[in-house]
Amino acid sequence: MNFKLKALAWLAPALCACLLPPASLAQSPAPYPSQPIHIVVGFPPGGVPDTLARILAEKTKLDQPIVVDNKPGAGGNLGGETVSRAKPDGYTVMMGGIATHSINGSIYPNLPFDMVKDFSPILLVASTPNVLVVHPSVPAHNLAELIALAKAQPGQLTYGTPGIGTSPHVAGEMFNSLAGVQLRHVPYRGRALAVPDLLGGHIATMFDNLPSALPAIREGKVRALGITSLKRSASAPDIPTLAEQGLSGFEADSWLAIFGPGKLPPEIQNKLAAEAQRVFSLPEVQTRMKALGMDPIVLGPNALAAHQRSEIAKWAKVIREAGIKAE
């Protein structure tokens, strides 16, 4: 082999190496998001959390679809566990709220996740008050009359709930404490089983989510005595609050928020928060939410984190004092 051939043989590997892309460029990740995003809802289709998740899926402009995954069970804990264990890459988030991220930690002794450490707050979306309703046969047309009736018949008046530890349950126990009465708790396995008994007069009262209760209220099938927010709802401004009727400071709203797995990278957390904030700030979306009985909030990660801390402390006290325990 002459000198020139030897030189070419020696240079060939180096030339080939120069033609290959640098390893760092070949392995650089695609811009987020590069695949569908799954939003987990820990409750069945058709409820408020599911509705909000589907609004986000419908209106998003992230160049990738958002897929709603309903994983009902254990008061929302099944969905919470799924997201808490997901890879923190922004492709699995959840529509959580008062149950999964403030109440359940005090109800379930073996909760399979930490409500704070295992999640990254993204957006506080909306709140919805519970509403105290009674069967029309109950001789009480306002809060004062109901309290007088309950005190005259301690332990006789019943209130139904979708189950132990649900937001209507803890609202009822807060009511018992502040009003000084003893409404008797009757837990059901879901709202779908509780409402027929209320409509049939088998239970006297119920704290129900306002969006769910509005149709029956408007049809006169139940009588609304007061809502559990500090101010009246734009969805039902004629229903007074319990606070303005004498239960000062009474507030037991359900709230909905988007969380990702813990240790979500800040750039992904902020991108998701910005897009969700854009969607839930749209005038047509806010109008739709109000028509369904929800009050839009739309606040980012820091505000959601502060709200969650406050709610955990508030409901832990109520649950402890009432002795509420999961079955």
TrEMBL record:
Which superkingdom heads the taxonomic lineage of this protein's source? Bacteria
Q: Is Signal set as a keyword in this record?
A: yes
Xref: CDD domains: PBP2_Bug27
Q: Where is the signal peptide?
A: 1-26
Q: Which SUPFAM superfamilies match?
A: Periplasmic binding protein-like II (SSF53850)
- What keyword terms does UniProt attach to this protein? Signal
Transferase found in the keyword field = no
- Which InterPro entries does this one have? BUG, Bug_dom1
User: Pfam families of this UniProt entry?
Assistant: TctC
Spell out the PANTHER family in the cross-references.
Answer: BLR1237 PROTEIN, TRICARBOXYLATE-BINDING PROTEIN
**So what family is this one in?**
Belongs to the UPF0065 (bug) family.
Q: What is this protein called?
A: Tripartite tricarboxylate transporter substrate binding protein
